[in-house]
Write a structure and sequence with these properties.
- β5, α5 and β6 form a beta-alpha-beta unit.
- It is built from ten helices and 14 strands.
- By secondary structure, it is an alpha/beta fold.
- The structure holds uridine-5'-diphosphate.
Amino acid sequence: MAILVCGGAGYIGSHTVHVLIERGEKVVIVDNLQTGHVEAVNPAAIFYRGDIRNAAALEKIFTENQIEAVIHFAANSLVGESVTNPLKYFNNNVGGMQTLLEAMVKFGVDKIIFSSTAAVYGEPEKIPVTETAATNPTNPYGESKLIMEKIMRWVSRANGLKFVSLRYFNAAGALETGTLGEDHATETHLIPLILQVPLGRRDHITIFGDDYPTPDGTCLRDYVHVMDLASAHILALDYLRNGGSSEIFNLGNGRGFSVKEIIAAAEKVTGKKIKTEIGARRAGDPAQLIASSDKAKKILHWAPKFSSVEKIIEDAWNWHKNNPDGYKK
Ligand code: UDP
């Protein structure tokens, strides 16, 4: 039996495949390579280049392989783009979930682990954020992920499917060896953007607002190492294999770091001064987003190994320094 990883050529997907292969799992990847990279596809996995909205493509994969469970990362994930082009997000993210679940039900595959996001919460009322907090997404990206969770819940009731939804806070870092990492055609995330400055690819980093009600006025985020996210997917897989019920878990380290603190940590790690400018607030940015991951720790026995921001930035730096153009040679 194999694990089907949808979006296994993407950032978090490729790191999760790496861990699955290392522990001896059989892995099948489907990725349309719209945002994923063929170079990030693990050579030990069976790879299909295809779109999960294509029912015939899924049918072929489920016919040619004995799929035990699905880990689903295949989605668009740019907040800003989702605001200007919401239909792209509802078509690809929500539409993809629909065809994927149809295929799973048809072929009797009853376990799915889903890549969700803290963006489902919107502006949180209480910090740290627990899984029972209200969900009020402030952008179509977060809304699409929330709808995808709701679809899974209804299908689980009707068709006996079991799901685990993992709501990540700020994913960052890279595989320690520097062979896998973050490579987005349009980079919007703080840590890779900061690291472009010491790489000589960017003159400065703009801090989006320094007048937030936080200790230094800049936003607080909970940064979590991509390898700790990967290990949570493996634990979720084992949890479902052991008969666990459908659940939602937050994944973060439970500590908030400000934009200024991240810049200072990046200066320490890279040994280079990083020029900053203060810019306007970015629309839809909550002042703080910090996870309570107590539930994941208790039920999945998740124990993040790389919780220091220095380690997260060090691994990201190692990747970017060795691959300044990402996967492009
Ligand atoms: N940020 C910033 N400058 C940038 C990019 C991001 O000040 O060029 C801030 C952003 O406002 C947020 C934090 O860094 O407070 C993390 O942003 P990112 O886009 O990495 O993740 P998000 O929290 O939006 O998922």
